[in-house]
Amino acid sequence: MVSQITRGIKISVQTSFEGTYFKNYKIHFAFSYEITIENHGKDSVQLTSRHWDIYDSLNETEAVDGEGVIGKKPVLKPGDSHTYSSGCLLSSPFGSMKGYFNMINFTSTKSFRVIVPTFRLSAPYALN
């Protein structure tokens, strides 16, 4: 698990290899990740959007932007947390992801960025 705190918001990530399958005559490596967002600050905040950089050892880096996380824009009061699970497909057994969440502080009404630390995606059988 990797964790990082940015402006009182702690992001923790746990990854898992889910297996391989064929799609469009190519093998794909499926990974899941669980992200926990904890508000250690003194103000309520809301996650509004996300940005991911997905690195695949056999492909170009893919950038993904979107609103919220899995269709939600969670509001976190001080002491609250929000956990969600998602996943990605790679064309190789090795890769990583990193990114950030755009958030708004309800007290100051200012937007800010919370860093999601780089987390590795690797199939355990591929490690030597």
Task: Based on the model shown, name its key terms.
mainly beta; Immunoglobulin-like; 128 residues; 4-stranded antiparallel β-sheet
Report a brief summary of the structure.
By secondary structure, the chain is mostly beta strands. The protein has strands at residues 2-6, 9-23, 26-39, 45-56, 62-67, 75-76, 81-90, 94-105, 111-122.
Overview of this protein structure:
The protein has 128 residues and is an all-beta fold. It has one domain: ApaG domain (Immunoglobulin-like, Sandwich). The strands form two sheets. Strands 4, 5, 6, 8 and 9 form a five-stranded antiparallel sheet that branches. The protein has a four-stranded antiparallel sheet with strand order 1-2-3-7, with no helix packed on it. The chain is elongated. The two termini are 20 Å apart.
Q: Quick one: CATH class?
A: Mainly Beta
The number of distinct helices, counting runs of at least 4 residues, comes to 0
- Overall pLDDT, averaged? 95
Order of helices and strands: EEEEEEEEE
Main beta sheet strand tally, sense and closure: 5 strands, antiparallel
Helical content class: under 10%
Structural class: mainly beta
The CATH architecture can be given as: Sandwich
Distance between the termini: 20 Å
Identify low-pLDDT runs: none
Q: What fraction of residues sit in β-strands?
A: over 45%
CATH topology: Immunoglobulin-like
